[in-house]
Amino acid sequence: MPPTSGQLALLLLSILIFAIGGAASVVRWWDDHPRWRKTMRWCVTFGILIALIVLVWHSIARRQWLPLGDNFDSLIWMGLLLALFVVYVQRRKPLIGLDWFVMPLVVILLISAIVFGRNRYHAYVADTWLWVHVATAFLGGVGFAIAAASGAMYVIASRRLHRKAPVSPQLGSLERLEHLTMSSVTLGFALLTVGLITGVVRIVAAGEHTPLAKIILAGCAWVVYALVLHSPMNPSFRGRKAAVLSVVGFLLMIGTILAVLLLPAGGGGGGNS
Amino acid sequence: MLQQRLFMLGVNHQTAPLELREKLAFAPTRRNDAIDAFRQRFGAGCELVILSTCNRVELYVAREVHGHPRVEELVDFVGQFHALPPEQFKPHLYSKAETEAVEHLFGVTCSLDSMVLGETQILGQVREAYELAKGASSAGAMLHPLFQRALAVGKQVMHETGLNAGRLSVASVAVDYARRIFDHFDDKTVLSIGAGKMASLVLQSFAGLKPKSLLICNRDGTKAAALAEQFGGQAVPFDALESHLTIADVVISSTGAPHAIITRSQFDRLLRQRRYRPIFLIDIALPRDVEASVGELENVYLYNIDDLQQVVAATQSTRKESIDAARKIIAQHVEEYAAWHRTRELGPLIDRLYKRYHEVAREELHRTLHKLPDLDQDERAQLEDLVRRLVNKLLHSPVQAMRKSDALHPTLNLPYLHAMEKLFQLEEPADEDASEGQ
């Protein structure tokens, strides 16, 4: 069931609040006053709450409590998980710079949920293989988004260190960023692998037609992340190279998601994964 | 005008890059040779103090008014000593004379000219330069009191202005950068190559991070052992430097080696052995211990003394009040020094005054005597005596007033001296170095 106007309006409010929180976080680059930290915290908390209300409302409306049932629901979940990750990191050991990269992604994902939910809404067929495929693909995407954010931060911080420019503590240490990138890529890679396997199973077993671009992009992303993960064996890949690859991998993942959302899925399954 | 001319010539962190400063630096072991060479060339009457630190190389010279060296000759001397063509460093030089040179030295001693404002190390470096010159008998009547006063000014400024309070140090900036690279230090190895004063200062900051191990590697094993004991580290042999570099995460290098001890080709090899783990190299030596191209390597973060000091310098704008107070003290001392110096010149000035007026009187007397050819010898002597007594009487009161004022208020006497020079036209003929400042 496509989202109602009320759900869309509420989600729009959530986007606005997240955007304000993101802006407050960016302001901290120049002015690290506690008021901006508080603003950011409140905005993210309220943004998450409102997005959760939208999800509950949407689940009630479509009478389906299983998450990731359609593209509207999946994109909100993806944005929500990213926002929750930011909250977790900032509570455990703050890494202010993470907000600057993740919050825009959250906003973009929620806007995508509105755009695609309204104009190109489609529900995924509720079979287990497909649900596992969608869940692992989207959750993998969350992991890769975090890896891309920390990777981008690593590239910036490393570049500034090489140029002997003052490095803001808000970006965190290279060691921590590298650790965050590798952990996120490991998680994302495992989920993506499951997603690819279940996708292949569906193509073979159900004879579902899937856009070629989606398969190629997903395959390329998998190879790129495999390269990142092999850096402990080939240490010349560690550091900046791994960070750049994690950003490239995420761009390929975005391409894959866009292919899912934009390209027509043919074939027998009826659903679109 | 002063009987002796004071001037200085130098380069500092603002006028010359590190590469040039290290070429022009006078290593402690060569400073005596430089002083000897200077005196051989310009005579033992000339005074010289060499101030050579990581931020500056400055030569303070005092010579007779019409003596040598002139600025150009000093440039030539520096070039010859370092076997460098003067064109290579001349555009980076600055030169100041007389009061400006005094003011500059006082500013340097107070760290106002340092990259790290408020650093107290410069005070020790100025003292060391002065002691060395004193030992070599190249600090005499002019430079001896000048440097003593400079040290006193430095101390006063540090005590009274709070210039050295709350400052960032090179060591603290290095630690800050290390924190930008590493998240925790309990599994890291900090290696110090060299066991000098600077190494000790930086190590102190890194020891506070509680690294897994602290290694001190020095040619002189006893020094390394002493430093290791101080910080709970371990002294390791210098011969095995490469293997220490393989395990180190932070390297502090501060040896007095005249050439690089860590090269690019060496590090290319080491990087593989290190499995490309990030390494933070802090090169605080001058000449540098680490080839600059090492810093271009992936996962290698190389910072030299200039890089760190520039960060420290960025904090200086917030300490305007202390700077203003320091400048006030310096201005006062410069004035006092100039006054003291001029009063030292009082005797020669009075001599010149008498000489000049007796000369004028003699000329006038001769002219009169030409018109009176009939005067006998006795009458001529009477007239000569009259003129001499007249000049002496006329000058007696102002000279006495000057001497009295000098004894009571040496500082206030300065305007009198100046007025006297102007009114009686007692200035020395213009010296060709008079316009050499800047």
Report on this structure.
- The complex is a heterodimer of chains A (273) and B (438).
- Chain A is mainly α and 273 residues long.
- Chain A has 8 helices and no strands.
- In chain A, helix 4 (96-119) runs antiparallel to helix 5 (128-162) and helix 5 runs antiparallel to helix 6.
- Chain A is flat and about 55 Å long.
- Chain B has 438 residues and is of the alpha/beta class.
- Chain B contains 17 helices and 10 strands.
- In chain B, the strands form 2 sheets. In chain B, strands 7-6-5-8-9-10 form a 6-stranded parallel sheet, with helices on both faces. Chain B has a 4-stranded antiparallel sheet with strand order 2-3-1-4, with helices on both faces.
- In chain B, helix 10 links the parallel strand 6 (213-217) and strand 7 (234-236).
- The longest helix of chain B is centred in the last third of the chain and has 32 residues, at 377-408.
- Chain B is elongated and about 110 Å long.
- The two termini of chain B are 19 Å apart.
- Mean pLDDT of chain B is 85; it is low at 432-438.
- At the A-B interface, helix 5 and helix 6 of A face helix 8 and helix 13 of B.
Keywords:
heterodimer; A: 273 residues; disordered C terminus; B: 438 residues; alpha/beta; six-stranded parallel beta sheet; four-stranded antiparallel beta sheet; 54% helix; elongated
SSE map:
The complex is a heterodimer of chains A (273) and B (438).
Chain A: H1 5-27, H2 34-62, H3 71-92, H4 96-119, H5 128-162, H6 174-206, H7 212-229, H8 240-262
Helix pairs in contact in A: 1-2, 1-4, 2-3, 3-4, 3-5, 4-5, 5-6, 5-8, 6-7, 7-8
Chain B: E1 4-12, H1 18-24, H2 28-42, E2 47-52, E3 56-64, H3 71-82, H4 86-89, E4 94-97, H5 98-109, H6 121-135, H7 143-160, H8 170-181, E5 189-193, H9 197-207, E6 213-217, H10 221-231, E7 234-236, H11 241-247, E8 250-253, H12 264-273, E9 279-283, E10 300-304, H13 305-313, H14 320-344, H15 346-371, H16 377-408, H17 413-423
Helix pairs in contact in B: 5-7, 5-14, 6-7, 7-14, 8-9, 8-13, 15-16
